[in-house]
Amino acid sequence: MNPDDARRLVGDLVEPIVEHVVEPPHGPTEVVRFASPADLVRAFAPAGGLELAADALPLPPEMIGDAVERVLEYSVRTSHPRFLNQNFAGPDPVAVLGDWLGAALNTTAATYEVAPVFTLMERAVLSRLAVIAGYDAGPGTGVGGQPAGIMCAGGSLATLHALQLARHRARPDVLRTGDTERWAVFVSSAGHYSTRKSAALLGLGTDAVVEVPVDARGAMRVDDLQDAVARSADEGRRPLAVVATAGTTVTGAFDPLDPIAEVCEANGLWLHVDGCYGGSALFSPTQRHRLDGVERSDSMVWNLHKMMGMTQQCTALLVRRPAALAAAFATGADYLFQPDKEHAALDAGDLAFACGRRVDALKLWLAWKVHGDRGFAARVDRAVALADHARRRISASEGAVAAVVPGDFTNVCLTWVPPELRPLDRSRLAEPDRKRLHGLAPAVKARMQREGTAMIGYQPVDGLNAFRLIVMNPEVTEDDIDAVLDLIVRYSEEAWSSATATG
Q: Is the pLDDT of residue 503 over 70?
């Protein structure tokens, strides 16, 4: 494609994408135009089809434009204020700009020589995040010292890195000899599944992961953690690390970090904080208390593509002792990390498992410059306030809807209650009623998705499906919260009546 054709094609296609980003859909606009796989195949047929046929001729520009229009038409509109389905939402427009700029320059954050600007930006971003977390961040963007961590592709990979760091501190010889130790890694029963995956990939085995009971909010019980550590040692497993959760996926619960740190320090355990979801509470003076004690952790993961609206992915792994990264991961490949080249000390590619990494720090740096600390704090505070509004609506419903888990962050878990079962006593539910109640959430979610009226999540809580609203999107208003709750009530009433009539 010659430059003129490329300019015309890209110029024509950028406009609708920009419009999608800067003018998020509202009101009656569908959250998603739901289509079955067969429907999608038919929809893309005029744009050359979804398949990539062998020896196919290049498509004309108008068909490429048609394909882009269909992508926009049939994709989930995560910026829609009634998208409450995930712990992320539509992107900040400045973050999108940063992603585009990084893609246009098409480099990697491996070495200073190929990414001089981005190397310093990454250092600056990590240093500032580390200061906010209470770590000693070191020299920031300066030449001396180690960066305060590493940007990596998602929270699961960050947890994998953290457990490798933990094992290297305990047994540095394992890098050379391999691992035969029977380890124990502790995480709450409400913690993320990535701990188990990481244990499997590192050769610790999933049996090494010990789930610690949680309280009514979903936070780790420290007494049970102490018991689990002692019991694992008695059973011949060497306690290695605790993965504490700052914002669980379902209820948004925060493990008590200070008491957990006491247990870790007393037993020589690595403390890793999974702050993928709740780490951004540190931006807010009114919410940062939820992570009291995080400064005592050895590492922390923080997903800025969640509450801060960065595009996927934007994950920071912070390490209290940054020199540990090179010790655990560096291989010194001399075709890339030549020690005698200019500014070799700034190369970050040997500080993580993956050498080639996206320049994800760019979008965060730009957005931070635009919004500042106060703007980030306001985003967190607004999300909590909207979730509080939902909880007030539930309390005022006179039992029509009931919160199933106590919480005070941005997650709200609830169930609709049929009139004949109010007030809801889950322990006294007859099995037929329990079965019908359990089936309401997937039925209601499916209807919302088909009709495009809203998108919410659901998950089992104590064996009974509950609706889950996750407030992340700054476009959400109290009216949107009210509308979604009204939809839950109306759709649940209709689904219950239908199930009763056929049951």
A: no
